[in-house]
Amino acid sequence: MHGDTPARRSPPAGPALDALARRGLEASGLPQLVIAVSGEVVLASDGACALLQRSRSQLEAARLDELVTTTDALTGWIERAIDRDAPESDLGSGAAISQLDLRVGDRVVAAEVQCESFSDDEDRRFLNLILRGADDLEARDAMRTARLAKLNLLNQVSEALYGAQLSLPQVLESVLIAMTAGQGLRFNRAFLLLVDERTRSLRGEIAIGPSSREEADRIWTDLSEQPTDLYEMMTSYDHSLRQTDVAVNDIVRELDVPLADENHVLIRAMHARRVRHFTERDAAPGLAEVQRWLGVQRFAVAPLATRRGAIGVLIADNAISGLEITDFDLEFMQLFANHSANAIESSRLTEELARKVLDLRKAQQKQKEDQQTLLRMERLSVMGETSAIVAHELRNPLVAIGGFARALRRNLAEDDPNRQYADIITDETARLERIIHDLLDFIRPQKMMRKTVAPDAIVQEAVRKMRPTLESHGVTLELDLQAEGAEVHAHPGEIQQVLQNLIFNAIQAQPGGGRVQVTSRVLEGGVMIQVADEGPGIPGDVAEKMFSPFFTTKSAGSGLGLTICAQIIKAHGGVLRGENLSEGGACFSFILPRPKDDAEPVE
Amino acid sequence: MAKVLIVDDEPHLRLLYETELRGAGYQTMTASNAEQGLEYVETMHPDLVILDIRMAGMDGIEALQRILDMDNTIPVILNTAYSSYRENYLTWSADAYITKSSDTTELISKVKELLDAKMIES
């Protein structure tokens, strides 16, 4: 085939042909000639070059009568067609078919010609001659060449559709680009309608195509500068082009036919085995409506069928160029529709599979988390039982040691140096007893006595108690309480204990001094209270264990603080969460529920 | 002088409580198990009983019921390492429930409170 031919004669002022028609025709495998009013050939298709065995520049320099032996009927038709004053309706919008002889080299070949007239922007009239039915071998070769080109294209399309792991919207878009692109099937506009199982209807999904001739010219010019490889073209179909598709997408969104409307032209076309071509001569239920939607009389509908059934239709027309949709076009549209249907189906199945895999993964993750929770609870319960026994066994000897240390201290004179030692024994046993007390508190099933209280008041009280500790550690406190007037159902003493513990942890996380922020916020189900610090945050390996009994990062401490806090919040129907802030530091938060009707009085 | 009976199977704790109570001006007697404690209640009529709960043989909860069956005017303080027994309603008939601590202040003051109240009643 010829590429650009620099020697191509550009017709003088009179005969001109806009870029759109030129692009549409030149690459056509059909042997086509476009004749101007003057009788000059202004354009010859690749197919015509092949059939007449002349280069495009030779053809485009010739007059029609040098190329063909015209018949009277054809001559008369041409005369009428190129008569500027003859109204278009006289010609009939259909095509005139006539016999003629072609001069191919030295031979004369019998052929059939289909003629159509059309006008360009400036109302210059042209005649499009489609030569066909030639039983000459050369002509058949030309058809074969054209067919091969289209098959090659189809191959490219299917490679593009299957090879690139496209998402469903990408597949849909690619189908339409291939339908309309210069390198593709060259329809002006294409519309894709898919079956929507939810609404049980055939619905417009997406469309591509210019809404006016100017726009069409611009797009085709843009596209001609792009690589001819369809795959690249599909992937580089950029946003500026998409914006021009607003009009056609408005059209496509209106297309919505219930599947139950079995006689509707589109539903029938979907269940048909082959592509159908509709013209103004046809009549079918719903056809007029579709023609009104599309704004054209002539369009083609190809069923999108997979082994599992019909999934939609592909509609194409030449609304802008007005070119006839040929059998050749239809044949390829059919082939292309089959490919598209399978590509759409496969993309859908792939997405469905991906979704299922994701669901499965989520379920696995959940199961893993549940297992971890279960393990943690089991560990907690074993730990709880064991520690209860150990704690009780330790309590009796500690009481004896501490008790006698106190007695000893009392019996020693004020200035006796041993008095200090007795003090140490007393203090240390007291500390051990406190740990045991914490532990047994945690193990003992708390009978919660809760009442309706103001959360901000609890925070204020906890903060008041912690103030001296905050000051002595050089930590400033920022209070941001916004739960005034709110009420929660809680045990104030226990929540205070939780807050004091969290504030104490926050202080310890900032040994060099820093800032602790305590906030309260009213949420839907209750009030959220947060304690945030500016320390190093919770290390990754600590996050998992920090609510476990006896786990501590401190050199002194029972490792029960957060465990007890978590238990208390849990008993209140909430969850104590610890997380790291993106700006640094750790944040512990919990939610206290709103009061219910069965609130018990506090003891 | 009021007599306080201490029932506990830990000899060191018996000694600690005896020491502290005597220091506070009470007469004391001790039993190392519940059975012996019940016998002393019957024969020696203490004014108050400090009763451990977890002991070998009969436990303090059963001993409490038996003491109250014998004489329900005797004040009984349950003194135990197990704060969880507080949940058991059988312990609720005791006059006081104290968790064992090396700081005996609470125990001594409870003894004093109960004995003073008993004096006023009688």
Question: How does this model look, in words?
Answer:
The complex is a heterodimer of chains A (603) and B (122). Chain A has 603 residues and is α+β, with helices and mostly antiparallel strands. Chain A folds into four domains: 19-136, PAS domain (Beta-Lactamase), CATH 3.30.450.20; 146-352, GAF domain (Beta-Lactamase), CATH 3.30.450; 369-443, Helix Hairpins (Orthogonal Bundle); 451-593, 2-Layer Sandwich (Heat Shock Protein 90). In chain A, 48% of the residues lie in helices and 20% in strands. Chain A is built from 20 helices and 19 strands. Chain A has helices spanning 19-26, 46-52, 56-59, 64-67, 72-82, 88-91, 137-163, 168-180, 213-224, 230-236, 239-243, 246-254, 265-271, 287-294, 327-411, 418-443, 455-472, 492-508, 540-543, 561-571; strands at 32-36, 41-44, 68-69, 96-104, 107-119, 125-132, 189-196, 201-208, 256-258, 276-278, 299-306, 309-317, 451-453, 475-482, 488-490, 514-522, 526-533, 577-580, 586-593. In chain A, the strands form four sheets. Chain A has a six-stranded antiparallel sheet with strand order 2-1-6-5-4-3. Chain A is rod-shaped, with a radius of gyration of 43 Å. The model of chain A is unreliable at 1-15, 89-94 and 598-603 (pLDDT under 50). Chain B has 122 residues and is α/β, with parallel strands linked by helices. Chain B has one domain: Response regulator (Rossmann fold). Chain B is 43% helix and 19% strand. A five-stranded parallel sheet of chain B has the order 2-1-3-4-5, sandwiched between helices. In chain B, strand 3 (48-51), helix 3 and strand 4 form a beta-alpha-beta unit. In chain B, helix 2 (34-44) runs parallel beside helix 3 (60-70). Chain B starts with a strand and ends with a helix. The model of chain B has no long low-confidence stretch (mean pLDDT 89). Chains A and B meet through helix 15 and helix 16 of A and helix 1 of B.
